[in-house]
Amino acid sequence: MKYIERVLAELKTKNPNEAEFHQAATEILNGLQPVVECHPEYEKYGLLERFTEPERTIMFRVPWVDDQGNVRVNRGYRVQFNSAIGPYKGGLRFHPSVNLSVIKFLGMEQILKNSLTGLPIGGGKGGSDFDPKGKSEQEIMRFCQSFMTELYRHVGADTDVPAGDIGVGGREIGYLFGQYKRIAGEHVGVLTGRGLSYGGSLARKEATGYGLVYMTEEALNCRGDGLKDKTLIVSGSGNVAIYAVEKAQSMGAKVVAMYDSNGYIYDKDGIKLEIVKQIKEIERGRISEYAKRVKGAEYTEGCKGIWNIPCDVALPCATQNEIDGADARSLVKNGVKVIGEGANMPTTLEGIAAFRKAGVLFLPAKAANAGGVATSALEMAQSSGRLFWTFEEVDQKLKNIMVNIYRNMDAAAEEYGVAGDYVAGANIAGFKKVAEAMLAQGVV
Ligand code: NDP
Ligand code: 2IT
């Protein structure tokens, strides 16, 4: 059996019932085929067996008391996947769908994403099956404090630096940071995405969405085209989606649809982002509100229909597997030219195959959404150096990083005979640096 097939088979046997982890590993390892063939030393030194096994998996009880005085128990996770090129780095997700498989798929993606940024950060991910929806401010705070009361012993500014992800934004990072500082007694850069008044970086909030659009624009520019006057669908209406829409609109694109987990809005005149921000960021409400406030806009219950709306560019920015094979075929039928993945693993393997077959320009998540973690690394640099860069300085660095990632994955795909296949190109470009660092450090 070929090396990759053997490692994948063993991974599935060793980690049964972890569908998302299997899916990410399949996509990554298959993408690495050309590079593994050129490097027999990878097999000799068990590189893929080590790469697919987290260095450490932490699971813990998170007890808290709700507003009615009931004791509630959630499960917390931190998977410290790979520290070959730097301290573990990656977000925390609070969502009822979180389980070990989800955290492991996210952690494995994060290793390669972080490598692609060119910055010294290893890969990790964590979170909880806690559902922030419908919880009071006080309940969120108590939960965050309980979560950090266990997590604090495993993290540190030079060991593991978490950040936000689904359900974890500025508010949660604030509560988590406050509790870390209280227990550990140090005001250090142990989390990123912090508020600007206590060590955060300008442009971190915008970074993932902006970065996604910078890369999409660069890929189009390289083909003599651009986002101007293009029709876009941006799924989700959280942090990544909102700032992707903001940047795309500033470049002259028209965004006609967005969703949350209940349903989607369609505004043929172009989404009014200030209203979305008011509903989602300030009121923490539902996207359906938009159609009540904007004349001519429509709301449809359920998410799937969004992919039947004709568009030139689709930016899935909500969650994993939001575009399946049928959704991809529908997008292709309606003339989609570009997919830029803002969410992590938003397209199923069948969906990716459908886009590949149709020759759609496909920018995979680990490259396209790397702007968030890259800016987190810039936040770490500012914390260590006791520096504070302007918005423009951070934004310019972010833009350069996104253009570089695009060029590196494009060059890697070309070099290994799969030109234009950025799923392979991103995996190869990300993996080569991790492999070099792991080989240099011996069998650890
Ligand atoms: P948020 O919590 O801010 O927003 C998530 C959005 O996606 C919400 O609109 C949410 O709707 C929607 N959503 C979540 N789950 C589902 C679902 N099952 N079906 C439909 N819609 C859903 O998270 P982020 O914007 O931070 O994250 C979005 C994606 O981007 C995730 O995949 C994340 O891993 C990825 N990402 C985030 C980065 C960051 O810096 N924040 C960096 C790189 C990637 P609702 O409000 O109804 O739950
Ligand atoms: O998926 C991701 O890259 C993130 N959620 C951001 C991680 C980070 O450490 O900023």
In words, what does this structure look like?
The chain has 444 residues and is α/β, with parallel strands linked by helices. The protein has helices spanning 3-14, 19-31, 33-38, 40-44, 47-51, 100-116, 137-151, 170-184, 204-221, 239-250, 273-282, 288-293, 325-333, 349-358, 365-368, 370-385, 391-415, 422-440; strands at residues 56-65, 71-82, 88-94, 122-128, 160-163, 231-235, 254-259, 263-266, 298-301, 313-316, 338-340, 361-363. Strands 9-8-7-6-10-11-12 form a seven-stranded mixed beta sheet, with helices on both faces. A five-stranded mixed beta sheet has the order 1-2-4-3-5. Helix 9 (204-221) crosses helix 10 (239-250), helix 9 packs across helix 16 (370-385) and helix 17 (391-415) packs across helix 18. The longest helix is centred in the C-terminal third of the chain and has 25 residues, at 391-415. The protein starts with a helix and ends with a helix. The mean pLDDT is 98. Bound molecules: NADPH dihydro-nicotinamide-adenine-dinucleotide phosphate and (2Z)-2-iminopentanedioic acid. Residues 164-167, 169, 208, 236-241, 260-262, 303, 317-319, 342-344, 369, 372 line the site of NADPH dihydro-nicotinamide-adenine-dinucleotide phosphate. (2Z)-2-iminopentanedioic acid (2IT) binds next to strand 3 and helix 16.
Give the tags:
single chain; 444 residues; alpha/beta; seven-stranded mixed β-sheet; 49% helix; binds NADPH dihydro-nicotinamide-adenine-dinucleotide phosphate; binds (2Z)-2-iminopentanedioic acid
